[in-house]
Amino acid sequence: MLANMMKFPKDFLWGAATSAYQVEGNNINTDWWEWEKRVGLKEASGLACRHYELYKCDFDLANLLNHNAHRLSVEWSRIEPQEGKFSERELEHYRDVILSLKQRNLEPIVTLHHFTNPLWFAKKGGWQNKKACDYFLRYVEKIVGALCENVKFWVTINEPMVYIHLSYIKGIWPPQEKSFLQAKRIMDNLIVSHIKAYKLVHSIYKRKKLLSPSVSVTQNIQAFMPCSPTLKNKCATYLRDKLFNLRFIETIIRYKSLDFIGVNYYSRSLVDVEKWGFKNLLLDICNQNHHPVKKNSLGWDIYPEGLYKILLRLKNYNLPIFILENGICTQDDNLRWDFIYEHLKNIHLAMNQGVKLLGYIYWSLIDNYEWDKGFGPRFGLIEVDYNTYKRTVRESARKYSLVCKTGELE
Ligand code: BGC
Question: What is the residue with the minimal CA distance to atom 5 of ligand 1?
């Protein structure tokens, strides 16, 4: 038994993540809130998990579960509900949120942009606007200035490529555009915004004579694989890997604007291209289940070895890596524990190959609003009853808590 024991470093960070819009509730000044109402989305976010009021209770549970870190996002539209008008009350709220984490020995990892935009910003064209970066920086200055004394880890933008893909290529999320040209413009804007925000965050810490922070993005990395080894499929796999997985981080690394690589990993994607064509090469996938593996409740393949392969490739960038999201939605809590166990096993294997990892953050601490999919998918270590808002700790959370406590996995 003991021979199989996997040990993680003493200073490893263990925890779980949430994002403001998905848990807080009543984020009425966002583009998402307006969009949910306008298109009549079957399940609107509403009160979400009422985390805006219940955060202390949620952090108590994270603490009881032996977490020593927590990833969360701050909601730009609360902090700046109208253009140029900042809310002292909301700044105070987030100060208290961060303080509550610190009091429970949870290291905060704070995301500045997690998919949602203030409505006023969206009305000006959002990230298509030439001044988008200036607007973003003004907000960054304000919120980082308010929280910097107690925050070491910052994530500027959550999954820029997922945002671009769903909002500007597939046109599923607001503003529901389908234009490669727009997508390219947004990507350029997000890259510049990250680089400038990175520099700004560092300059704030310097000005205040605080220890240098660690600033990153979270990059959603998928294990792209050709469904069958045709030339078309192999080319498409290469292209997608370059464009969706690596382009963003490679660019910001060139600009020396990344202190660690924030990785979000969920699944693999089987590439099966119908014909030669830019759109096909980028988007065609196989839905035939040719290579069956277990799936989550949204039908995504469970593929832990993909994470191992990805970590070994990322090692080449010579930066520490932080897993900032990895999780499963399922009604089967045994499957959740298997998922966590298998991914941790692969992470450990990669660490044995010299990959430098700062920590592991599970998605998500509590069940939450899964965007256009509503409240059905259950990602949480902790179950939320949406009638009573009662929290119930799942068995998988207890098993994970033992790993968090001992830094060992048997
Ligand atoms: C996002 C989360 C989302 C999760 C599961 C990530 O892409 O950052 O907001 O809930 O995946 O889909």
Answer: 370
